[in-house]
Write the structure tokens for this entry.
Amino acid sequence: MPELPEVETVRTGLERLIIGREIADVFADTVKSFPNDPEEVAQCLVDARVESVRRRAKVLLIDLSTRYTLVVHLKMTGQLVFRGEQNFGAGHPNDSLVGMLPDKSTRVILTFRDKSVLYFNDQRKFGWMKLYPTAEVPNIDFMRKVGPEPLEDSFTGELLYERLQRRKNTCIKAALLDQTVLAGVGNIYADESLWGAKIHPATIVKNIPKSKINNVASEIQIVMRLAIEKGGSTDRNYVNAEGKKGSYIDFARVFRRENLPCPRCSTTILKTRCAGRGTHLCPVCQPAATTLFQ
DNA sequence: CACTTGACCTGTCCGC
DNA sequence: TGCGGACAGGTCAAGT
């Protein structure tokens, strides 16, 4: 669930909440959640000060004064939640999904000198955090292979078209989900963007004219900018760095809106399967036809 | 190489 | 009410 807008929302929250704080103690529950050697972790993290919080695709990069970077992938159910004095042990306001911490999903705990805490929670244990020397981060396999950031000025329909050439025989949805084509798109924003561009998710890439790819590129930007403005999408698990939900899901046009009317033409939204994922579409706005674009 | 499928996990929901 | 199975979706390894 955390896709680009959710990870970006966590990033801006962390930037405000943890920069300048010094780590005093680290707890990690399993090797999988934090695979570095525990001694290395203690050595590189304890007494380190947080210098900056960056994002690339769906990955968070927490740069430390020790010239190490904590790389974090939230995968589907990961959360990074900060607790300082003002919200220590905070209960469950309506906009929160997180109660007392740690809880049974807590995988890693970073305690700062001032007793504030950063919790890494992950119900399904798919997420991870890992330490790398900051200078080596660009050489991480993922960082070398990942595609362009859709919200940068350099991202255009032309660039998307070019990137899609590597996946021209697959369906457009699978191609958009491929992080080496384009960074940061997941299931929610793939469905939303394809609805915006009026393209059926199962359409084979090579059958889509360039003008339509331009539309896809701009829809991705429109949808993601709105999602960031709304603090991301809380479908089930996602919360920001303060433990609060995002509200984009209330503005979604197709995602999780099966059996409801299409906001454009009132046709009932369908839920199908495409690229191995639950896929939402309007059968009238996004017709499945091979000769559609002739 | 291009593409698809299954595995990784746990919580939730649905049908019996 | 309990229980089995499907499902949720990001990424990578393994298979076609």
Q: What stands out?
A: Chain A has a mean pLDDT of 91. The beta strands of chain A are 23-28, 50-56, 59-64, 68-73, 78-83, 106-112, 117-122, 128-133, 270-274, 277-281. Helices of chain A lie at 4-18, 38-45, 141-145, 157-164, 172-177, 187-196, 210-229. The domain at 4-145 of chain A is CATH 3.20.190.10 (N-terminal domain of MutM-like DNA repair proteins).
